[in-house]
Automatic annotation (TrEMBL):
Its cofactor is FAD. One of its GO terms (molecular function) is flavin adenine dinucleotide binding. This is Oxidoreductase FAD-binding family protein. It comes from the Bacteria. Pfam families: FAD_binding_6. Keywords: 2Fe-2S, FAD, Flavoprotein, Iron, Iron-sulfur, Metal-binding, Oxidoreductase. InterPro entries: Cbr1-like_FAD-bd_dom, FAD-bd_FR_type, FNR_nucleotide-bd, MRET, Riboflavin_synthase-like_b-brl. It comes from Sorangium cellulosum (Polyangium cellulosum). Residues 4-109 form the FAD-binding FR-type domain.
Length: 245
């Protein structure tokens, strides 16, 4: 299904999502299908040259249903003076950029039929939405989505998420979650996700968001009985593997 490569993309629709967030609808300039699966992402070249001479390229999860392959949606949060988020927060409808992808293995396997637990922190909710709205999730016996977020004003709203989730998905929101960098985040995530995990056997566990939370969470879920190697992670930020590389 997936066809990876570089392509020009065009902004066909844009709308504000609240404080510092924006929804963009994108299409390939050549009209071709993207060929993505729920949970995957693309890397967008902002065209901005960083001080070291590299181009600022940023990854964005596709929160659309993968039933539609010629137009996709991403949600962008403006982050300070960040070149990626500012370019996409300001670009006009009709503007074009280059992207590559789709990429990523944070996805349910084709023909999935068991129980899935999806955990998202912060902006990781976009990947979680893509997973829940993907064709592979349609056959799930149960899909539990846990969103750990500081507040309803942090990124997209609870209503935005609920409006886009399939009726069969069960959403739990831990609003008031400690802010990024807070030392209590990993322990709080482990306690909340551990309760959901204990509700019954999980055939797939997928996590997206803050790596400083997700890696300890994976260790905790494995200690509770999740198969080692069976918890898939995608760090949107604070990836300890990149720091140690």
């Amino acid at each position: 299904m997936t066809t990876q490569g570089k392509a020009k993309i065009r902004i066909t629709h844009a709308e504000p999502l609240g404080q510092g967030a924006r929804l963009l609808r994108l299409e390939r300039a050549d009209g071709a299908a993207l060929g993505f699966a729920g949970g995957q992402y693309v890397i967008i070249n902002t065209g901005v040259t960083l001080p070291g001479g590299k181009l600022a390229k940023r990854a964005y999860s596709l929160l659309s249903s993968d039933a539609e392959q010629r137009a996709v949606e991403i949600a962008v949060k403006r982050i300070g003076a960040g070149p990626g988020s500012n370019v996409l927060s300001d670009i006009a409808v009709g503007g074009e950029l280059e992207w590559s992808g789709p990429w990523g293995k944070l996805r349910l396997p084709d023909g999935f039929s068991g129980r899935a637990l999806v955990v998202a922190t912060d902006t990781g909710i976009t990947a979680a939405l893509g997973i829940a709205r993907g064709a592979a999730a349609a056959g799930a016996e149960r899909l539990d989505l846990l969103w750990l977020v500081e507040s309803d004003a942090y990124f997209v709203s609870e209503r935005f998420v609920r409006d886009r989730l399939p009726a069969a998905a069960h959403l739990s929101i831990a609003s008031g979650f400690p802010p990024v960098g807070h030392p209590e985040r990993p322990a709080r995530a482990a306690a909340i996700a551990g309760e959901l995990f204990a509700a019954g056997p999980c055939d797939a566990i997928l996590c997206a968001g803050d790596g400083a939370v997700l890696y300890p969470l994976r260790d905790r879920l494995v200690s509770l009985g999740a198969p080692e190697g069976g918890v898939l992670l995608e760090s949107f930020f604070n990836n300890p593997l990149k720091k140690s590389a």
